[in-house]
Amino acid sequence: MRPALEEIKTLEAFIAGALPEENRQEIEIRLLWDQDLQQKLGLQQIAYRSLREAGRAQLRQELKSIHARLFPA
Known about the structure:
Blueprint lengths: L2 H14 L4 H13 L1 H36 L3
Helix pairs in contact: 1-3
């Protein structure tokens, strides 16, 4: 796998809390001094948060639509 994709996969597992302890500690240490990695982690967290919020907004809209069909005004 390409190094960039491997890094994304590792950060994804870090965010999800799915990294083995040894790897998690390695990432935490790298985050202390590697500003580029800090930025990548932050951007990945923002992307995941945005996707969750978009999914919730879509679900709310679908529920409103269902409610409108079941209980017309």
